[in-house]
Amino acid sequence: MAFVRVPRDGVPVTQAKDVALDASLGKQFTLKTDVVVVGSGAAGATVAYEMAKAGRDVLVLESGRYYPSSQFTEHLGDTMTKIYQDQVGQVNTTADIIFVQGACVGGSTVIGACVMEEPGDKVLDGWAEKYGLENLSAKNFRPYLDTVADQLQIHTNEAHEINACAHKVIQGCEKMQFSWKPAQRNVKQCALTGHCLAGCPSDRKMSSLVTHLPWAAAYGARIFSDTEVVRVRMLDGRARGVEARITDPDSGAEVATMNVDADMVVLAAGAIHTPLILQRSQVKDRSGQLGRNLAIQPFTQVLGKFKEPLYGFRGALVGVQVDEFTHTDGYTIFSGLAEPESLLAQGDMKAGKAHMEFMKDYKYYAGVNAFSRDLGQGYVQWDGDPYTGDKTIHWNPSREEFENMKASAALAARIFFSGGAEKVFLPTFQSLEANSVFELDAKMDEVDYGIKGLYTFRSNSFSPHGTCRMGADPYQSVVSPTGELHDTPGLFVADSSLIPESISAPIQWTVQALAKYVSDQINDNAANYFIG
């Protein structure tokens, strides 16, 4: 095809304000397409590109707003209120874990930390054997991972991308003889401003906003923002489109309702929202696993205070990772000092005079995110009417998961003390801090499991997965090895919901490879899915 120039503001997107001004559409309208893709993040954008490139008419529906990179200010507070899901208020039932998710065109790829890691051959071969997913074996899935690596320009951090904060982690690891390595990131010639979570104004982060979405648009894909899919439309047991509502992102007023007629529906709204759409749609599920098996990769931010100024907020946000315990215990520690707004969102900024003192000392801090692997025992649930009900995210740590979180945080603290920290702040509701490594064990003993681990750690999750498990057995999984629901023809899932069990690696690389794989399954069997 001919070269297509994409405008500086990204991609052509039909927004709620455009629908409101288009008299030909009215308050209720219907669009027709070959493929409707729900969600525009890592998975949705990849599917949209692959389908459009194959010559299909593609419609992408995104519930969040369109926020082009030219509008990013690198002020995280700005971004949080505009393009984070629930304004960083998406939490579990006890509100002690924040599920950080993008709510915008480009999804979580726009506000992510850029950390990339493969799931590993042992993990992939385990999926193939345990869940009948032979196409996801290391040998068969490797080409998909390699393609995504090329598309996202994934590279290993070079020396100039490892800042002072990361060097404190390196120093601690060297003293303790822990294995560490430079992190891998999907960034092209990083500007080293350190504001990844606020969006990248220079388009150097290879998010979907600047990769697969404009590529899909160049092949004719249409993109709607501010458009929440309420449920999948069925005809004779087959998915035939979706029902959605378009809402003004500032006022919250409903602008119009949209019906989409399509040969195929691909859900790519993420591990929280994809199962909720399926629950609202009342799809058949012999397995009883829909919305179950939620794994979240919980992590805590551990802060170390050093004698010399580090300005840990300068340079690449994530420089190195500690992989000493990744394969044995599921603990992975990434360098990265959270911005004040992030700490404020999770209640780590103190108040009054103590807050002022904290901010005065901020330049002396280094930070790490201490991840642990969970058991995948959470679930998401839609309660009430499809339009007026609400979601609940059920995840609280078992005793084993709690001990994993505790051990990961304790390791992070030891690394900081070995790197020369004079004080370490632990990520607990008790605001615990240790002034030396000799106090650490006693302080960690104060972190008690309590009532089912509630209100102990201030935790976050960037990577929920597993709620629409993929597998060959329809009595043990929601989605077949092709990505199509076992019990609903024409309805596919292509996001992190598919991951069949808890993994320790950051998931974006895996998710985009899975989305490419599902797209190939559809294109390779197009005669079975499309009319004409």
From TrEMBL:
<dbReference type="GO" id="GO:0016614">
    <property type="term" value="F:oxidoreductase activity, acting on CH-OH group of donors"/>
</dbReference>
<dbReference type="GO" id="GO:0050660">
    <property type="term" value="F:flavin adenine dinucleotide binding"/>
</dbReference>
<dbReference type="Pfam" id="PF05199">
    <property type="entry name" value="GMC_oxred_C"/>
</dbReference>
<keyword id="KW-0560">Oxidoreductase</keyword>
<keyword id="KW-0274">FAD</keyword>
<protein>
    <submittedName>
        <fullName>GMC family oxidoreductase</fullName>
    </submittedName>
</protein>
<feature type="domain" description="Glucose-methanol-choline oxidoreductase N-terminal">
    <location>
        <begin position="36"/>
        <end position="298"/>
    </location>
</feature>
<keyword id="KW-0285">Flavoprotein</keyword>
<dbReference type="InterPro" id="IPR000172">
    <property type="entry name" value="GMC_OxRdtase_N"/>
</dbReference>
<dbReference type="InterPro" id="IPR036188">
    <property type="entry name" value="FAD/NAD-bd_sf"/>
</dbReference>
<dbReference type="InterPro" id="IPR007867">
    <property type="entry name" value="GMC_OxRtase_C"/>
</dbReference>
<feature type="domain" description="Glucose-methanol-choline oxidoreductase C-terminal">
    <location>
        <begin position="377"/>
        <end position="515"/>
    </location>
</feature>
<dbReference type="Pfam" id="PF00732">
    <property type="entry name" value="GMC_oxred_N"/>
</dbReference>
<comment type="similarity">
    <text>Belongs to the GMC oxidoreductase family.</text>
</comment>
